[in-house]
User: Fold these one by one.
Assistant:
Number 1:
Amino acid sequence: MTAKGTEDSTRDTSVKMLSSSDVVGKDTNEKLEKIQSILDKNFYFKEDEQAKQDGIIKGYMEGLDDPYSVYYTKEEYASFMEDTEGEYVGVGVQVSQAADTKTITVTKVFDGPAQDAGIEAEDILTKVNGEDISDQDLDTVVDKIRGEEGTEVTLTIYRSTDAKDHEYTMPRKKVENPTVEYKMLDNNIGYVEVSSFYEVTADQYIAAIEDLEKQGMEGLIVDLRNNGGGLLDIAVKMLDYMLPEGKIVYTEDKDGNIIDEYNSTAEQQFTKPLAVLVNGYSASASEIFAGAIKDYGIGSLVGMNTFGKGIVQRMFPLDDGSAIKVTIAKYFTPKGNDIHKVGIKPDVEVELDADAYKESKGEKDNQLQAAIDNILVKLGKKTADSTTEAAASEDSSTTGAGASESEATTEAATDNAE
């Protein structure tokens, strides 16, 4: 694997340290002084100086009108860096936020306090410790859920299956984020679910495939549904294991200059029939993975149109331990497709039967069954039916018409784990 240009944007710690005073000009300072004078004379409640300063910077970044360019307080930045390591102190849930409504949905529940308390996937988070979080960004909410080990947090959720609010209080514990889970299905079809792209993910992924190979795997399903992304170079490492020699992904700055180009140089190590499950929550690094698989034609995408996040952010640490994350580039698939705000259209389009899935607690998964059928056809163990095979063979384009399921505001390693 080779990469030309700068390091992955989410992992660059060699950048210039910025001073918080760099972000406001003279006129703004004068206005703030005037506002402070008014507050000193009139504001009834006690002021929190740090909260005000953080609010100024957050508002400054929000003025960019880019949901992915954000300010992190010292605590939020520490939490972000903790995310990428795959271990954190929290309750053990994966969450995503809708871009239009800002609704925060639980997309996965891991072994931990949340699971013990009774929180379920598809629950909608409405309050943290009694505070309404409907107008708050995802990073802020994640920071509220996390905290010191041994302390408690109360989450209020809305559950559509009974149309009721539920309140759960649970302890915060150290949780290891199992980013890869796998098993062997019938007919020797391997199944690997990747929930995020963190530091530990590539090694876990390769180890899973190698173990399935030892068990006699004949075909593979990689499940990227509800995977909001993570570290770009981890996705690249995983693709280097799957792809023949060639381009994996490249990024361009606002002037059209290529700043990163990642290429696979190793001999292709996986050549068996492959299907990749995607949906409207599959974003960022998930789309890099899915887009490369589709462009090279080495597997079929099954499910629904992906989210459509084709931009890259870089983290700039500030001198007080806080940081800003800034969109610096757009990325393109090996064939040069721009998927931003468009997504990737699956080869086999199958909408999840959500009612059957929930009622069976995940046992009835028609999207997974479609992926299994796709593999069985490739193995010659099943005759292609008119729906699956037709959909699998008709589409060679990478981009689709936009996410057709609920969208999530997702970006590298911040949208899943608290």
Note: The mean pLDDT is 86.
Number 2:
Amino acid sequence: MAPIPSVLSSLQSQSIEESKENKKRLKAEEFTLKKKTKTRNYKKRKRAHRKEEEIINKEKIRLAKEKENFEKQQNKIRKAEEKRIDMQ
């Protein structure tokens, strides 16, 4: 009967070591998942920010073109009025 308790104790020690290893492995996996999630979220934020900047830049370009066209029209109107005044 003496060998049975030693076998049980060795099995218990093995299971304790395995559970410790499993805990370490799980913690490591959890850490990598958190890191991947943080990286993924960071990339999403950067992508969204980049898209916002692109939209803002397109809007600035559109407004600049609009302003330029408006100024051209104003110059045409002014020149037409000057010609009309000169004709009189």
Note: The chain has a mean pLDDT of 89.
Number 3:
Amino acid sequence: MEHITKKNISILVGSILFLFILLYGVYGLIGAGQNKKVKKTNEIILYYSEECEHCEKVEDYLVSHREIEQKIQIKRKEVNKNKDNSVDLEEKALMCEFDTTRGIPVPFLYYKGQCILGDTPIIDFLTKQTL
């Protein structure tokens, strides 16, 4: 039988600590995705950037068709300068199962679990909402 030494005890304690940390980390990764749910909302959210020409087209359309915003309320969220809005956009994109590894394009419209990308599809959607 091997003699118990301080070195053996240190190795045993270190191994147990390593396994505990490893299991805790794996549990944290698995549990993180289950606890964070984005609630569906009935409001129309338009994510945009001030530097985006396609976003500008949507805004110009809304300005020239004011009746749209008289019928429906649109919440605008700028994503380049506002970190909270950027995080919110990413959550919505993931909810719609978009690949966010290379960023998320704007304009991006979110409504009742539906995600719409691009100026023309967004304009078409908003127009249909007011008919």
Note: The mean pLDDT is 83.
Number 4:
Amino acid sequence: MKKNNCVFPQKNMNQKVLKAFIELANTGNFQRAAERLCVTQSTLTKQIQALEAELGLDLFSRIKSGTILNKNGHLLFNEINNILTAYDLLKNKANTLTNPNNLSVAFGMATRDLAPALINNFMTSHPQKNITLIDLPTAAQSEKLLAGELDLAFMREQSGTFLKQMVVRRDRLLLIYHQSQKRLMEQQNIIDILSNNIFLCIDENICGGTYNIISTFLKNTVATANLKEISSYPNILSLVKENFGCALIPESACHHNEHKDILSVPINNPLTIWNIVMAWNERFNNTLRDEFIDYCHEVITTTSGRPVSL
């Protein structure tokens, strides 16, 4: 009999515990993770301890600037994230079958601030509706939109797709570094910096789209480039804050106002600028989706002062 390699939660690995792991991995900070999960730090600590006890593994390491995944945590991050995504998709599928007032919306790192805010504001005038947010990478969003398994997605703009797209913002690549390196950075041009340093970047398996943007840009601008892949943006920021190296990350992931020791420089190149869009499949009718799109179009156009439809 063929073995099933999927990992399923055991007795202590309920959704709350798994979400606690993902949120702490993504924020790198117990206080911020607890706030986002709406629990106390003590509860979050107990949830992480329960998961580690169930697995028989330590998953995090503490550094001066926060908490980062250790080797075990890195190896299990994708598996745990996939389990939570599968739960969300199953729940959404069941809700869709029983309630036509439901809407499934996917988002990623680039719209972690924008997508929830738009949905919360929309829901104040549509309290009878139910919108489920699902965290998915762009490739998975496209696949599920085309299959009709997802109603709407905030994602990186796609070319050569049947999906309808509406630009909601632009993103770009930043070079970030520790403030102690400021003078050295200012004395070199960007090409020399990129050619002579090892750079941290997001793991290709975590965010393949961003990794491809970085690698394509480097291949087209420098002779040689050394990249070290890291499993999450908070971990990258923590390592840069501790002066373990420089990094290339999207502006949407660079909350360095929370890391006062980190400085950033935008990389001005057509290869390092891209659109973030709302995408949907017009082959599937959904009145609530269309209402939400109209609402977002109005809000974004008013905010940006320019039309956003493609």
Note: The chain has eleven helices and eleven strands.
